[in-house]
Structure formats: structure tokens, C-alpha cells
């Protein structure tokens, strides 16, 4: 049984108990049975409280004014009596249907919802109510939504470091374009660019769903790094020292064997101006080194010493990296 199915069953039980107790005809033994059900778990108590709140809210809804009308002719009919048990069964059925539906909708409403961005020249840290922490890299944006049964973060752009508080009842999920990262409690980074997704794990266990046909679910442990190239339909796994995961939080980005095409996208974000490549072979060239994220121009100026390329500053602010001939 899934968590969703389990909560739906609890909601139905809460609706049935509410219907039976509203009739005022429970015996002492039934009241004891209800008390035992209520004390069985926090979920039972919360579901019954939700049902009471829902009933109170419905009772306070404004009734529409109905204009007076001439009474229609009435033909007397022989009185019919509905058996009390049939009426209670009907009421319970209605409450079960409404309670199940509204209980499901209740769980779909976020308990916490926020959007946050880091400026082009600042890192930003978010402290969440469950004890989890997010650090946004320069120029990064996230949307956070916490529900009763899950925690979700959408990485809209850039990169974020996640320190997730354990909660087996509410898994933590990061959506980054087509890819998805799922954890319970761990520390890791997720970086999203135009055509790639990268995940590196400092602590704990991370499951990465690439979201691309032909690419299987990846299970990552501490020190594992994964890069997904959506243009090529390929992924690449490697090992990194755990101390280097999220190193940019201290202002120094440490990278190993990174393709220049991907690095150029990060340089664009750190500079606040585009960095483009001119030359088919440049994007595939790989680099290792470090970058002061607050002074990216120093790294840019050193590139011609590391690779056979030249820098061309264009009038529109675009920095062109061209293969040296």
C-alpha cells in the first residue's frame, strides 16, 4: 500500500467516525472503540481534526438568497418513513466520498511555498522549517513547496547545495528540467545548465532519474559525481573528494576534468555576461583547476595559457573564445 492509499483509507475512517458520532447514538463500547482509533496514531487524530474543520467551514458558508415565489400546488402523498439505518448509511456514504476527495485535495495543498534567487554577486542561504538548508550559487533560482507527504524543490536556473533534514515520511525531491533527484536526508549539489544536469554527493544516498529515454536511474553514494548530457543522450560518472562538493560556498569553485562548453555556461553566470565558443573542438576540451567565483575575469584571462584559444571582447559584451590558429 502506498502512502497516498494509506492516507485515503484513514480519511475514509475519519469521515465514518464523524458521521457516526454526529448521530449522537454511539454506545459506551463504540465510544471506547473510537477513542482507541483516535489514539492509534498522529495521522488518525489529524485526519479527524481535518474533518471537523472541514465540516465547520462548510457550515459557515453563506447561503444564497432565494427570491420568494408563489407556492406551487401540492398533491398530498402517503407518508413514507426512511429507516434510520438507511439514512445513516446514506450520510456515511456521502461523507466518505466528500471526505476522501477533500482529504486528497487537502494533502495536495502546500504547507510551505516560497521562491528565492541569488543575485549575480552574492550567495544566498535559506533555512527551511524542517531544518533543511539550501545555499544558492550566484544567479541561481529555486522554488520550494512542502506538502504533508513530500518536500519538493524546483531548480529553475543555476546551482544549489542541499543539506536535507531526514524525514522518512516526507521524501525530498529536486526537479531540474527533465531530471529529478530524490533523497530522504543527505548533502549534495545540483547544477542545471542549458543542456546538462550535474549532481555530486557529499553525504548520504541520492537517486537521480535522468528523465531521458535510454538513461537508467542512477544511485549515488558519497564522493560520486554524475553529469548528464541531454544533447548527446549520455551520462558520465566520476569520483570527487567529498570536501570539494559545494566548494563554491567558500567562494572557490574547484573542478576536475570539466568540459569547456559546460564551464563557459558557468562563466557566463559568474560574469553576468555571455561567454561563447567559436570552434567545434573547443566545447569538448576538458579542464581541471579552480575559479574565484567573485573574480571570474582572472580565470578568463588565464585561459589562453591553458588552452590554444584567444579572447575576443565584442561590442555587445559577449566574450568570444576562439580557437587559436
UniProtKB/TrEMBL annotation:
Keyword Ligase: no
The protein's name in its UniProt record: FecR family protein
Gene3D superfamilies: 2.60.120.1440, 3.55.50.30
Keyword flag Metal-binding: no
Domain FecR N-terminal: 12-52
MF GO annotations: sigma factor antagonist activity
The FecR protein domain, residue ranges: 118-206
InterPro entries according to UniProt: FecR, FecR_N, Ferrdict_sens_TM
